[in-house]
Inverse folding.
């Protein structure tokens, strides 16, 4: 099968995805009879391009875009594209729109409008951007169903760790009744370093040097990142219909972290935990909170930088996934897993 891909947003994850497709080209062909070509790319500041016949990943990886403006001479059959993401989606001939723009946790935009437009136009969509899934999952799911296309978003929580694909393909006839985990790597890295004797400021500077803290660290420390992630999990896995601002975030932030750290009993480990659970009345309540974990708790064993998620299922009971240090490469894997899932679904 031949599939055309268009990238809306090409930063760390987009570049890692192009490199991964280039590295896996032969394997994709041999194992899945799948040939992927890029027919376009768009960015906010470095402009975009369209190539009707598509460009192979290895060829695209060798070009300087998006480090510099698109040079049509370097890629025969291509043209530079001026215009915003919506104009690009309307103009680019593609089977799948890969949405990898910057996260806006408060509104999900511009990714939400990009995804809506792509689905409306009958394109399959893969995204790593959790904003649209947190804010408008039901609407987007219904739109995709109405247009007969796929919407996949494996990389929105814990990079490429298989969560949504696991639930869809490997947990048949199962109800997920709860999710729980230390989902924000920056907060838990900072708490881990504080346990080793660092101050909060020193630990936060380390997270920023490591490149995984948000530009505004309060977004991590005050639980917004975890609230958006747990909203995605609850909405997709438990059909919760939650908004991120409905997640209870109490006792968070730098001062609360210092106070809770000082109050720990010997052997306890402090984590910022997110959870969503269906209550007796059928309603789903979600929280992000600082929790003192006993020594034997599996989440207390995680080293700084690791994230984890426990699913509570009516068939399997508890199932726990742990991710080592993640980043653009793991996120790119989740995007590729989604592309392969689309190929399987439409090729069946
Ligand atoms: N990095 C990770 O490890 C990771 C893990 C999980 C999920 N994610 C999610 O994956 C997405 C991409 O992350 P990233 O690290 O690749 O981000 P990034 O390096 O900041 O790249 C974002 C890209 O989106 C482009 N962009 C922003 N607004 C746009 C618009 N209105 N129209 C067209 N292009 C636009 C940017 O263009 P300019 O550069 O010109 O502004 C850039 O090419 C985010 O939603 C992020 O939350 C990332």
């Amino acid at each position: 099968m031949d599939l055309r891909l268009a990238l809306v947003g090409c930063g760390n994850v987009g570049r890692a995805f192009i490199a991964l497709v280039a590295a896996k080209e032969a394997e994709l062909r041999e194992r899945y009879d799948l040939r992927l070509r890029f027919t376009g790319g768009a960015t906010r500041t470095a402009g975009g391009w369209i190539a009707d016949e598509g460009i192979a990943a290895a060829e695209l990886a060798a070009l300087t875009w998006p480090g510099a403006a698109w040079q049509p001479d370097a890629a025969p059959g291509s043209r530079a594209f001026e215009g915003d993401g919506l104009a690009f989606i309307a103009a680019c001939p593609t089977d799948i729109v890969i949405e990898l723009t910057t996260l806006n946790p408060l509104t999900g935009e511009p990714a939400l409008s990009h995804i809506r437009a792509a689905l409306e136009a009958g394109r399959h969509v893969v995204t790593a951007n959790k904003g649209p899934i947190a804010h408008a999952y039901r609407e987007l799911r219904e739109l995709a169903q109405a247009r007969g296309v796929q919407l996949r978003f494996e990389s929105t929580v814990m990079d490429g760790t298989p969560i949504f694909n696991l639930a869809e393909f490997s947990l048949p006839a199962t109800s997920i009744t709860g999710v729980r985990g230390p989902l924000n790597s920056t907060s838990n890295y900072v708490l881990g370093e504080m346990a080793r004797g660092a101050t909060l400021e020193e630990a936060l500077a380390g997270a920023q040097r490591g490149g995984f803290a948000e530009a505004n660290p309060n977004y991590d420390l005050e639980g917004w990142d975890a609230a958006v992630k747990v909203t995605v999990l609850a909405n997709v896995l438990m059909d919760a219909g939650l908004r991120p601002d409905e997640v209870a975030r109490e006792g968070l932030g730098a001062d609360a972290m210092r106070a809770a750290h000082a109050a720990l009993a010997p052997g306890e480990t402090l984590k910022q935990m997110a959870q969503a659970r269906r209550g007796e009345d059928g309603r789903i309540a979600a929280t992000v909170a600082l929790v003192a974990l006993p020594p034997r708790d599996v989440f207390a064993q995680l080293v700084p930088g690791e994230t984890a998620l426990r699913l509570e299922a009516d068939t399997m009971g508890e199932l726990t996934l742990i991710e080592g240090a993640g980043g653009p490469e793991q996120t790119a894997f989740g995007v590729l897993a989604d592309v392969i899932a689309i190929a399987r679904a439409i090729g069946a």
